Amino acid sequence: MALKPFDRALIAATQSGLPLVSRPYEAIGAMLGVSGPQVQERLSQMLREGLVRRVGAVPNHYRLGYTANGMSVWDVPDEHVDAAALRIAALPGVSHCYRRPRRLPQWPYNLFAMLHGATRDDVQAQARDIEALLAPHCRQHNILYSTAILKKTGLRLRGD
Amino acid sequence: MLPPDDALLVAHLHDGFPLVEQPFSAVAQQLGWTESRVITRLQALLSQGVLTRFGPLFQIERAGGQFVLAAIAVPEERFDAVTAQVNALPEVAHNYRREHALNMWFVIAAESPALAQQAIDRIEATIGLPVLAFPKEHEYFVELRLTPLTQGGSHGAQTL
Questions:
Q1: In this predicted complex, what is the ipTM?
Q2: What residues contact A122, with CB distance under 8 A and at least 6 apart?
Q3: Residue A29 shares a structural domain with residue A104
């Protein structure tokens, strides 16, 4: 289940980004002692296996015009949460949707849906759609807006 | 808001970056650009912070790893110092300031649940504040990409 040595080396070589050169996979292969096509093939396999989620660009939401980014959190009875979450995940504007444990008494919420809009009004409209969809199973909810990105590097394997 | 050409490139490079020998050339052909223009604009978007990363995004949980969302209620006068202490750990992949008593929310990405717990323990020991951990119990599939909002043609988030 743990990472194989080659996969670990491939992740370490690419986790901060692909080299912006004409033949990036060849450049990575040169670092790892394999050919460019071998790098391409392993990344393709990882994509099929789900170990690579996607190959592409990670945007700063704010810089794309999404200046209102809210973590909406919902307290939904356990027996209803999965069915409701599947419908929430299909709503426009929702970028991630997770079930997580409550931490009582500080934190009564068990469903998290990340919402993005140009304004807080947009995000609140999205939250109202979720509320309508959850009714009558939502006991309470909140929206925690982000006010600063403090770090956004993504995965970094230790010791490389 | 991005200029239309940059918005086009960002939307095009969200995922599906080609796993071929000369991927930037393949993207250039799709856009009707030159390869050097694709690379130059991508470099500019990364250096300007519009994009935070470009490359494979690894789902480390498929290889025994774990992502854990965690939150801290940080006293306002210590916020900057605690931010530096938390961000210093390579396991901290993202960190956001949010409007709530729990005002710091970050994601730990580690190669195993034990290493994720070690990172949380290390943060608690370093800053002397409790860390509330919210490991993911279930992720609901969301296929959303945020389309860059452009001047005069905002079309918002699209579900694809």
A1: 0.92
A2: A68, A93, B156
A3: no
